Amino acid sequence: MYAEDDLLPISGLQHLLFCERQCALIHVEGQWLENRFTAEGRVSHERVHAGGGRAGPNVRQAFALHLRSLEHGLSGVADVVEFHRAAPGRPWRPFPVEHKRGRPKRGSWDTVQLCVQALCLEEMLGQDVPCGALFYGATRRRLEVAFDETLRREAAQAALRFHQLVESGLTPPARYDPKKCDTCSLAEVCLPRSAASRQRRVRDYLDQALLLSDPQEGGAP
Q1: What confidence category does residue 196 fall into, taking pLDDT thresholds of 50, 70 and 90?
Q2: What angle do CA 114, 116, 117 make, to 5 degrees?
Q3: Dihedral (C-alpha) 198, 199, 203, 206: value to the nearest 10 degrees?
Q4: Which of 135, 184, 133, 153 is closest to 23 using CA atoms?
Q5: Kind and range of the H or E element at 217?
Q6: Which residues pair with 54 in a beta bridge?
Q7: pLDDT at 111
């Protein structure tokens, strides 16, 4: 179990799974820059969180619900948690819904973040949370997510890795990946292109040094 003072933000899991260097820049070094994508995401969350609460005969919605898990050392705010009517005499079933600005991603960072919200709800409410949903603004559609054992294990491992990274106090070196780096808000801080260029120069220097030291390649005896 973690102490209250040791809780890390649930949102940081997205940073971790997207890029460990980005995660360390934000959560170890305290760096942050905003671009169009982060601004659109922030505004989207603010709109959802302003919803307050809604109640219908079969579904109740709670907006901006605060979550925490002492077992996994995480805390945060759920965009929406729906409570679905169950059988008579049974508690309403929690169903977390996370809003995202874009489209479904190939990586697992959205589903892991949602699963962690479910783990928090289970710990807080003492109820099973078997599934939830991701709502993507670009498609205006929900993608339902089942919290199976594989996803739960990945979520728990991500939480543990997040704590290990922060506790280490170390920022991993930059590695340029155009699919990630070109849209990252921290590109000006991270400088992945410069790092990649330096790494190429070092490799070229070492290759040349090895070539010159090899007699079979015409180097010095």
Answers
A1: very low
A2: 65
A3: 60
A4: 184
A5: none
A6: 61
A7: 97
Q: Are 149 and 158 in contact (CB under 8 A)?
A: no
Distance CA 12, CA 121 (A): 18
Count of helix runs (H) and strand runs (E) in the chain: 8, 7
Per the rule left: phi > 0, alpha: psi between -120 and 50, beta: everything else, 2 is beta
pTM (2 decimals)? 0.79
d(CA 24, CA 14): 12
Q: Return the DSSP state at 173.
A: P
Domain-wise residue ranges, the chain: 4-172
- Tokens matching residue 21: 């260097």
Measured distance CA(86)–CA(121) in Å, rounded: 17
pLDDT, tens digit, 9 for 90 and up, residues 115-172: 999 999 999 999 999 999 999 988 999 999 999 999 999 999 999 999 999 999 999 9
Measured CA to CA in angstroms, residue 19 lies from 92, 98, 158, 163 at distances of 37, 21, 12, 15
For 4-172, CATH number out of 3.30.70.100, 3.90.320.10, 3.30.1360.120, 1.10.1200.120 equals: 3.90.320.10
Which residue has tokens 């330096």?
198
- Rounded-to-integer distance, Cα 93 and Cα 174, Å: 43
> Residue 202: its pLDDT value, please?
40
Answer whether 133's CB lies under 8 Å from 104's CB.
no
Look up residue 146 and give its two tokens.
């089942």
